[in-house]
Amino acid sequence: MSLILIRNHMTKQQKIEKDKNAQEKILDAARKVFTQKGYAATRTRDIAEESGLNLALLNYYFKSKENLFKIIMREKMKGLFGVLVPVLNDTSLSLEEKLQLIAYNYIEMLSKNPDLPIFVLSEIRNNPEGFAKNIQASKSLKEAHFVQQLHERRPEIHPVQFLFSLMGMVIFPFIAKPVFVSSGLLPENQFAMLMEQRKVMVPVWIKIMLETKTINI
After folding, report:
1. Which of 9, 15, 145, 173 is 20 to 30 A from residue 159's alpha carbon, by CA?
2. Per-residue model confidence as pLDDT tens digits over 23-72
3. What's the Rg (C-alpha) of the chain?
4. Both 134 and 183 in a single domain?
């Protein structure tokens, strides 16, 4: 290979790496700004400033705020629902095993991505129909093996009642953490310990709900 070809190849590789680094900087900035401000209040200029790159470069790589948001939203939804759907549909697992896995996996994932619930809840509030369509929530839940198991165990109770309780027990602590920490009710260094405990406690609480006789309404 001639020296010119080697140099051209190296230059091309350097450009690819430079482009990749710039795109990741923009995506990192977009994750932060969208989480803080939400879609409507965010400007592409805000993202460019956060990334330390100019606006022209952002437009070159991603074209628009909408395109950037779609990428980030897909990431967030994959993170939030990616740990749920496979477990819900695993026919080899008992109901109790699914409860344990959902609680454990969600708390693990949210501990690594504590801003995730706020971001997703913001979009659910602003665009519930679009959000549900994107994640195919209706189909995913209605056809889930988990729902069938719940119905067989407690046919008089709507399965969504259990899902409300389960997801609330797992997700709400991460939403409420700033309030409890800033008020002094919960030292920052104790939160992780409490979440480890909830990995065991949440399935126990849901199991009690399954086994407790309810009053007919």
Report:
1. 173
2. 999 999 998 888 777 777 889 999 999 999 889 988 988 988 888 988 88
3. 22
4. yes
